[in-house]
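It would be a great kindness if you could assist me with a short task in structural biology. Thank you for your consideration; the sequence and its tokens are set out here.
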Amino acid sequence: MSRKIKLIWDFRGPSAQKTAEHHVVHLKDYADVQKITSYKIATQTFSDFHTTAFMIINEKDMIAVRDALRPHRGEVAK
């Protein structure tokens, strides 16, 4: 069983939530075009000024997606 990796893009400022929501649209498009199995693509809001967009994928796809989309950080999904 392969691990799941959560790739994360941070957005900060008063428009962070709207920017992250828009970024999710592009992540979903990318996953569809590249035929990447994604387990979840969504946003997570931490405050009025910090929202993340994230994508949970199989570890085997991580390098290609990381190099193409350049997330700010990543972690093993729980």
